[in-house]
Design a protein that fits this description.
About 25% of the residues lie in helices and about 30% in strands. By secondary structure, it is an alpha+beta fold. The longest helix has 8 residues. The protein starts with 5 loop residues before the first strand and ends in a 13-residue tail after the last strand. The model has no long low-confidence stretch (mean pLDDT about 95). It binds a DNA duplex through strand 4, strand 5 and helix 7.
Length: about 210
DNA sequence: TTATAGATTGCCT
DNA sequence: GGCAATCTATAAT
């Protein structure tokens, strides 16, 4: 990791989820797992606004499940969906105001083989490490990237992502994305037309059939 | 107490 | 392209 890397602070998340979702593109999501370090570059996010967003988990008010979204910024909100998958979000806006950003896809950067193993994908040698379609299966989708990084509700929900000692953090290593595309969000039925999904244009690790841009 | 939909994925045809 | 897997929250009995 370059010398000028910095963990994002709570101030970064203390603003409109649309701004946070856009600004997160190109940052690194880093997991410290014992002696190993797993990292992926964020290439796809979705903004979930508070009270005015029918598709947001916070839309119906505060419950035990979604309380993190109503708390201070920079906290991990992890939920279990369809009986199969975990999805990772980060809370935005000040304590008392709901809002968050869903992480949807990563480009694997470090610990690629361990992430593949967590996904049940076999990687054998340099040949596979260059196999784009194989690498794509590791973390191109919210459930996939959570599995690759070992994210679960039990382990990570409520975790402060802005603490330097956290085993799950978001790091700015100076990388800047070239172009950002904005589209409607994926897999929702309410407020489905709103352009609140942000992707790195042309990046092959974005979820879905083909790259955007 | 029972039913249903859900911020998904992988396997089937 | 269709659909099952399988947990959770919430709505409907």
């Amino acid at each position: 990791m370059p010398a000028l890397s910095a963990t994002l602070t709570s101030a970064f998340f203390d603003r409109d989820p649309r701004k946070v979702a856009r600004a997160l593109l190109g940052k690194l999501l880093v997991r410290k797992d014992g002696r190993s370090r797993l990292a992926g570059r964020i290439v796809e996010t979705e903004a979930y606004l508070g009270a005015d967003d029918a598709a947001a988990h916070s839309a119906a008010g505060k419950t035990a499940r979604n309380s993190v979204l109503f708390g201070p910024p920079g906290i991990a909100y992890v939920y279990f969906i369809y009986g199969n998958h975990y999805c990772l979000n980060v809370s935005c806006l000040p304590d008392g105001v709901a809002g968050g950003v869903l992480f949807r896809a990563l480009e694997p950067v470090a610990g690629v083989e361990q992430m593949a193993e967590a996904r049940g994908i076999e990687i054998h040698g340099l040949e596979d490490l260059k196999n784009a379609s194989l690498l794509r299966q590791i973390s191109s989708g919210p459930g996939r990237m959570s599995e690759a990084l070992g994210v679960t509700r039990e382990r990570d929900n409520g975790k402060n992502l802005t603490s330097p000692r956290s085993d799950l953090r978001i790091v700015d290593d100076g990388f800047r994305v070239r172009k950002i595309a904005v589209t409607p969000r994926i897999g929702i039925t309410k407020a489905a037309a709103d352009p609140l999904r942000f992707v790195v244009a042309g990046n092959p690790f974005v979820s879905g059939r083909r790259p955007i841009g």
